[in-house]
Design goal:
Order of helices and strands: HHEHEHEEEEEE
Distance between the termini: 74 Å
Strand content: 35-45%
Structural class: alpha+beta
Helix content: 25-40%
Number of strands: 8
Largest sheet: 8 strands, mixed
Length: 171
Amino acid sequence: MKVWQALIVVAAGIGLAGYAVFAGKSDQERIADQLERLERVVEISGDENLLLRGSRIRGEFQEIFVKDVAVKIPELTSLGSGRAPLAGVATQAGARFSSADIDFGKLDISVGNAGANVKAPVTLTANDRAGRVRCDRRQVRIGFVKVDGDWLISSVRVISKSGARLDVEPE
């Protein structure tokens, strides 16, 4: 009976290892998951207290971005690099807008030995405090590095595009 028990344990172990290898998420899926998480983290809905929003965003950004993330956004030339300034901008957006969300379009993800790169369109849709709907569509380039098995964003570059900003009157 002990031989059968050992065979069952070995078979179960092989089955679990096979599941982990073949059913686990691919790097592309894990990167896409991080971008979906970023969409949820920066979303503005309702009147979230700015202190609580800032604390929540800083905590989440530790699991999404490397500490010294490089950020280039044409309209925010003084932003600089790092997770803290980026979290500050995301927090303050809650004071400017009553609601807002970002949506990444079709992701073009390339994974290599040194990391991963994502090219994608992103749309920011927001309602300002005066009730105006704002929509801004841009291309972004996002760099990822693997840190302790997790894909973290190491760089964000928003591409300036003429005619990208659309202002829409509320319905």
